[in-house]
Amino acid sequence: DAGVIQSPRHEVTEMGQEVTLRCKPISGHNSLFWYRQTMMRGLELLIYFNNNVPIDDSGMPEDRFSAKMPNASFSTLKIQPSEPRDSAVYFCASSFGPAGGYNEQFFGPGTRLTVL
Amino acid sequence: GQSLEQPSEVTAVEGAIVQINCTYQTSGFYGLSWYQQHDGGAPTFLSYNALDGLEETGRFSSFLSRSDSYGYLLLQELQMKDSASYFCAPVDQTGANNLFFGTGTRLTVIP
Q1: Which of A78, A92, B76, B107 has CB atoms 3.0–4.6 Å from A108's, for a disulfide?
Q2: In Å, how far is B7's CA from the nearest CA of chain A?
Q3: B28 to chain A: which residues are within 8 Å by CB?
Q4: For a pLDDT cut of 90, what percent of chain B falls above it?
């Protein structure tokens, strides 16, 4: 298996522009997570999907952030408009298993976002 | 609410043993997992404790005490490649399958 795939790996954009990050989870996994990592705040969960349905989006910082999972093999995280404080590494992770039990998460390589 | 406390940095000598402690506060606690992240890389799973006690996986062991809201990761026979950040991540059952991480512990192994 190719593992979790994220694109792009690096993104540099200007403040005010729209940014779309993409993720393809491991085939067969039914949970998908978006994280943001910065030095100051560490690794933060933004949103979690189970069977393509958003379960917990309490970590989404504000309305400028939105995430979708139109099918089991694709998810997007969109920032519109972007701001310099959004600069971070964004990770997508997936796992398999029923709710109510712990299942190891497999992380993608991340997207390093820089907003100028 | 949720909180997590780990040392920010630890330095140890190659071949030695190091223990990374973790105290947590969360509602609906389900278990404690540990992840490793090398610089520039993605977090990778190391271990998970659902029950109190010690879980051993090769050179790495993880311990959990639910009554103390405390756990630790023990790394033995340290190697240079063990230099990385280590995250304890409580599994919060209110989110099922959810983990919350923090800033982790940066381990530096020196010759």
Answers
A1: A92
A2: 13
A3: none
A4: 74
| Four-point Cα dihedral A92, A95, A99, A102, nearest 10 | -110
Look-up of token digits 């997007």: A76
The SS3 of residue A112 is strand
What pLDDT digit, counting tens, does each position of B70-102 carry? Answer: 999 999 999 999 999 999 998 876 545 566 788
Cβ–Cβ below 8 Å for A102 and B95: no
Question: Which regions of chain A are under pLDDT 50?
Answer: none
Residue B55: how many CB atoms within 10 A of its CB? 16
Residue burial A11-29, b: 16+ Cβ < 10 Å; e: rest:
bebeeeeebebbbbbbeeb
pLDDT score, position A1: 65
A52 at interface of B, judged by CB pairs closer than 8 A: no
Complete DSSP assignment for A58-92: TT--STTEEEEEEETTEEEEEESS--GGG-EEEEE
Which residue in this structure is represented by tokens 């799973």?
Answer: B45
DSSP letter for B80, please.
G
Out of A43, A102, A109, closest to residue B97 by CB:
A102
B21 touches B88 (CB < 8 A): no
> Cis bond leading into A25, ω under 30°?
no
Interface contact flag, A43 B102, Cβ < 8 Å: yes
